[in-house]
Design a protein that fits this description.
By secondary structure, the chain is an alpha/beta fold. It has 12 helices and 13 strands. The chain is globular, with a radius of gyration of 20 Å. The relative contact order is 0.16.
Length: 395
Amino acid sequence: MIIKPKIRGFVCVTAHPEGCAANVQEQIDYVIKQGPLNGGPKNVLIIGASTGYGLATRIASAFACRAGTVGVFFERPSINGRTATAGWYNSIAVEKKAKEAGLFTASVNGDAFSDEIKKDTIEVIKNGPGKVDLVIYSLASPRRTHPKTGESFRAVLKPIGQPFTAKTLDTDKKKVAEVTIDPASEEEIAATKAVMGGEDWEMWISALSDAGVLAEGARSVAYSYIGPEVTWPVYKNGTIGMAKEDLEASARKNDSRLRASGGSAFISVNKAVVTQSSSAIPVVPLYISMLFKVMKDNGSHEGCIEQIYRLYRDQMFNGSRPKFDEVGRVRLDDLEMKTEVQEIAQSLWNEADTESLDEHSDFAGYREDFLRLFGFGLEGVDYEAETDPNVDFEA
């Protein structure tokens, strides 16, 4: 079949296997070009490993640190002529390249919130690379079924206390308009915390520790985001922000547990990038389009792979140590949050409307990154050629 992008809202419902493989290869090439990192992990578990920052972490771990990797994700293969999800194709491509490089690699596909997948992952580790010395928590999901109670929760992206009105970007129609979001109920706040907070991260560390598959001195990092004030009512001070506060509390608990064996846990606050998750948050796509323009103009723009390589090089390995902020977080968003960057982005935000969107933003770059998430727009890929969507992992 000839595979073209089919976009519905903030999701592309098709993915191109060869394009996804090309996207993975570009990230591998970047890491190799930067050079190997000394003192890196031997074996890395990435929870949420198939797209975005999690995928970049798996690539950096394997091709900069020569580490064995176990990736956990929830993706769908090709069924009845439909394409698989992009994360499915990404993970196959990473595994293939890692095996060609002589590295251990394994994947576990299923609900990472469940006890079953935790047990399956532990068995993979026991039968595969040996104990893991780095656990990355990069899970992004709109819903969660609690493994103990069976209760289902759904996260919402809402302000707290009062309605929030601001500019937003309809990326389908390329239209800037105002959006008003009603405040969340107490039940919605609690549900968002249950999905996006830190309880599951704690459960993972407990399960891995109790099973004896964490190496002495093992570290764990969870990825987070704060963003600028313009997004705070729906992000930092909204339901997501409450969940992120819970994640930070879990970081302290995990840190205390891992320190007993010489390890540690912390949160890395990363830069705004185009991901399937960020595309769904009102206001954020417009802000990202402004941010991209500013950071590309001043030469400081980074994508996922550049961010994670910098985290590894400057904060974790290669003789480096984490540089924490006042509450114990690593700030990879330092370049984004520079005063001069935010002042220009805010000025562009104030001026932007539908007619001037191209002038005041890098919407074209946003759109390009969005399509690349699903394997479209990659150089060297013939998108007019027949492509088999039914791609599977090698035995």
